[in-house]
TrEMBL record, chain A:
Interacts with TRM9. This is Multifunctional methyltransferase subunit TRM112-like protein. CDD domains: Trm112-like. It comes from the Eukaryota. Belongs to the TRM112 family. It comes from Liquidambar formosana. One of its GO terms (biological process) is tRNA methylation. It holds the Pfam family Trm112p. GO terms for molecular function: protein heterodimerization activity.
Automatic annotation (TrEMBL), chain B:
This is tRNA (guanine(10)-N(2))-methyltransferase. Keywords: Cytoplasm, Methyltransferase, RNA-binding, S-adenosyl-L-methionine, Transferase, tRNA processing, tRNA-binding. GO terms for biological process: methylation; tRNA processing. Its main location: cytoplasm. It comes from Liquidambar formosana. It is found in: Cytoplasm.
């Protein structure tokens, strides 16, 4: 699971009002190289919840993202490369996503987050 | 300003070995989608359709069409990317006889012909007939008959600069299931662009490692990607990803892909480390999906504020005929009990939640709501929708949504009982609070009346019920079958 996915997901258990961002429980991280596409990053930048991405990338052991951003940073190649790496190249291979409100554990196994709810959670 | 050439005849992809023209309904929408993709339409103009003309006396299912395109570049791009177009040609002349053809070619202005006939160039003429095989001898005779065209260049059969085509259709008596041709028609033209013939053999399902029972045929998957206007860097989502066959086509065209499925065995495990969705992408050297996850289309896990992230959503929803849809919240709904099934605390970690059947109506409602929320404005939703066929006609009431405009609907007949229709919709307006609220109400209504919806929307029983119940008596159904015309172009 890449951090782009993490940034889009929330816990949707019935009754949970703030299911985002999911906390990361990290067992195994792998890095996979992805072709750099500046247009894609520019498009995604405005959709991303930045703080959630920064926190998640730190939980995965990558601390190079700045805490604050502004749109002008997109002109910097150096920034785009870091953003690219954090967003697309870090994978949570084994671990879990934890609902911030209930503590429910959504397992991540072989890189696939299992977001299916139990019968009493829908 | 574009060149003088504005009308191109289109020779649609060759007939299949079964001698039935395939996917007829899909041809014009595909060309129009690609025309939009390659900038054929003025963005300020509101009508995004092309001007089509059928050749004289031709059946609407004819393999030849004339279409007006703004430039040769657009025509070439369309032809190279299209799945159903065999080639696009600049017409130099047409006629009902070779005399008429000669007259037309002679009348075609020299200034448009001579640049392609010069002595430094190489060329090739191909003779093609539709509905009949022309012998090698006859082909040569026909080529010699074109000597009134001042070809100065050298012939190069392997790699010519300019390719010319002489195409002939005729009423040969028996038409082998092809669309009827009333009268002979001959075309001569210069090829502007032709289809990539290696594409489909490369991606055909029979050589793909990981397949499921409802894997999308490569031709259809690429067609869907074309309808969705997939280009490099776009983000494409398939909420019923299965073995990934639709995303493979999107990825071939350079898209970033994401997929979800409710069946974790499919998305996570496949049939082992070298036979799963990832390995399918690896097999073709395509970039891996950005994300695969297990999620339920009925209760998508996207964070509430997330809007307009996907450029296209392409999918084949489970409509309960070959594969049934499932959604979260099994036992309690099935038993009709009111109290929820509570998972004991010590069993929660490894608990495998049961799922409930997912009716088509609810599934499509959820899909449209998801697409309305998650697609960018101008983004496309492309999906199959099943319809029951009665009396050879289909009820053309398709699902609609205030955020979407239907761009194309193409029927593919699957049996006497039902068809699937490929719907292409474009998101025309933003997802408002009002729309979100009414979708939420509808969601609750579905939940409360779950059993009723399952009974009402049961396509499986309509498709597989005995013939008598459907057609009102075996004798009736027999006679009505006999009355059907021999040429049934939409059958595949």
């Amino acid at each position: 699971m890449r951090l782009l996915t993490h940034n889009m997901l929330s816990s949707n258990i019935k009754g949970v009002t703030s299911g985002f961002p999911l906390r990361l429980e990290v067992e195994k991280v792998v890095e996979k190289q992805v072709d750099f596409n500046a247009d894609f990053l520019n498009n995604m930048f405005v959709k991303i919840e930045w703080k959630a991405l920064v926190d998640a990338s730190r939980a995965m052991g990558y601390a190079d993202l700045p805490d604050q951003t502004e749109p002008s940073m997109l002109d910097s190649d150096e920034f785009l490369k870091k953003f690219h790496h954090a967003l697309l190249e870090l994978h949570l291979e084994e671990g879990a996503l934890i609902c911030p409100e209930t503590g429910r554990r959504f397992p991540v196994n072989k890189g696939i987050p299992n977001m299916l709810l139990h019968e009493d959670e829908v | 300003m574009c060149g003088h050439v504005t009308v191109y005849p289109i020779r649609v992809k060759d007939i299949a070995s079964s001698c039935v023209l395939r996917l007829l309904d899909y041809r014009k929408p595909e060309v129009e989608s690609l025309a939009e993709l390659f900038g054929a339409f003025d963005s300020s103009a509101n009508h995004n359709s092309l001007e089509w003309r059928l050749p004289l006396h031709h059946h609407p299912d004819s393999p030849f069409h004339f279409v007006r395109l703004p430039s040769e570049d657009v025509a070439r791009n369309i032809a190279n990317r299209s799945i159903l177009v065999k080639g696009i040609y600049e017409p130099w002349g047409e006629g009902s006889s070779y005399e008429e053809l000669e007259e037309a070619i002679r009348a075609y202005p020299d200034e448009w012909k001579l640049p392609y006939l010069s002595s430094e160039s190489t060329f090739k003429i191909t003779v093609d007939s539709f509905g009949k095989v022309i012998s090698f001898q006859e082909q040569n005779d026909r080529i010699r008959g074109l000597s009134y065209i001042p070809f100065k260049g050298r012939v190069n059969l392997r790699n010519p600069e300019h390719k010319f085509w002489l195409m002939e259709t005729d009423n040969y008596g028996s038409n082998n299931g092809l669309p009827p041709i009333v009268q002979r028609r001959i075309f001569f033209g210069r090829e502007v662009g032709a289809a990539d013939r290696k594409l489909l053999p490369t991606y055909q399902l029979k050589s793909r490692t990981y397949l499921g029972p409802t894997a999308m045929d490569a031709e259809m998957a690429f067609l869907m990607a074309n309808q969705a206007l997939v280009t490099p860097g776009k983000l494409v989502y398939d909420p019923f990803v299965g073995t990934g066959s639709i995303l493979i086509a999107a990825s071939h065209f350079g898209a970033m892909t994401m997929g979800a499925d409710i069946d974790i065995r499919v998305v996570r495990d496949g049939r082992g480390p070298d036979c799963n969705v990832w390995s399918n992408f690896k097999q073709y050297g395509l970039p891996m999906p950005i994300s695969l996850l297990r999620a339920d289309n009925n209760l998508p896990p996207w964070r509430p504020g997330l809007r307009e992230v996907f450029d296209a959503i392409i999918c084949d929803p489970p409509y309960g005929v070959r594969a049934g849809g499932r959604k979260s919240g099994g036992r309690k709904l099935l038993k009709g009990t009111v109290g929820p099934y509570t998972v004991p605390d010590d069993k929660r970690t490894d608990h495998i939640p049961s799922t409930a059947p997912y009716s088509l109506v609810e599934c499509v409602h959820d899909l449209l709501d998801l697409a309305a929320r998650m697609l960018v404005v101008g983004g496309r939703l492309v999906f199959f929708y099943p319809v029951l066929r009665e009396d050879d006609s289909i009820d053309s009431h398709y699902p609609d949504h205030p955020c979407f405009k239907l761009v194309a609907s193409c029927e593919q007949i699957l049996s006497f009982r039902y068809s699937r229709v490929l719907l292409t919709m474009v998101k025309t307006g933003p997802y408002t609070e009002d729309i979100a609220e009414s979708a939420k109400m509808k969601h609750l209504e579905f939940k409360e009346n779950h059993l009723k919806w399952l009974e009402d929307g049961n396509l499986h029983s309509a498709v597989f019920s005995p013939a008598d119940a459907q057609l009102g008596g075996a004798s009736d159904s027999k006679s009505s079958k006999e009355l059907k015309p021999k040429y049934r172009g939409k059958y595949v």
